[in-house]
Amino acid sequence: MLLSGSRRLSDLACLFVAGLERHVGRLRLERPAADVQMMVDGDLTLLARLMGGGRAGERWRCWQNRHCLVVPRNWSRLSGFRDAVLDCPLPVALRASGGSAVVHGPHVLNVSLAWLALESDGAGIQQGYARLTAPLVAALADMGVSAGLSRVTGAHCDGHCNLVHEGRKLAGTAGLIRPAGPQRGLLLHASLSLGPRDGDLDIIMDFERRLGRAPDYRADAHATLAGALRAAALPDPATL
After folding, report:
1. Burial classification of residue 163, based on how many CB atoms lie within 10 Å of its CB (0-12 exposed, 13-18 middle, 19 or more buried)
2. Whether 207 contacts 101, CB under 8 Å
3. Which regions of the chain are under pLDDT 70?
4. pLDDT at position 234, please?
5. Known catalytic membership, residue 157
6. pTM
7. Which of 68, 88, 157, 161 is catalytic?
8. What is the pLDDT of residue 121?
């Protein structure tokens, strides 16, 4: 599939969401609101509504945010966090799940899954990640982009359930579990890189350094959907 140079990233987000619908059912793409924290908190609202209904099932959410930095909520207790926020060139939002700093923006598509399961089913975080990532991998395959799950050395917010394309991180994942009597609510989310954004990695590393971390991330450890689509459209030199 050839991605036209004139196609906007918002069109690419719509294209992916339309493909994902074939695997999970009808979806709506939420566009950015003025309040970046409100967009992040929408995931918790989704989970709370599902758990409030008390019936096992799942709900999907596809959404984009304004350009901002998103970090785990427990980082707000770290020494230097306030100063790091004040000095950050982007608005900073907090999320309930773990991991480390990530960037949202028009160049990122967020896909979230709220899943309410019976505790007796043995549903845990690994099953949640599998439930989230399987349709994402399938939707990418439909677009001609191969992806698997693994860690990527040099990638920011690295995890064993990264979506990886040709050894580079295409999307990161995070999740949490909320027990509720005989049930448990799981919230899983993925941030899919649609296209590059210069400076994001520098902002992430600067913020983490201010909190005493020692990030050593590399731009070449990351992939984008736009780049993968362009590469997929190129002929194999061996066939020329």
Report:
1. buried
2. yes
3. 1-7, 234-240
4. 59
5. yes
6. 0.93
7. 157
8. 78
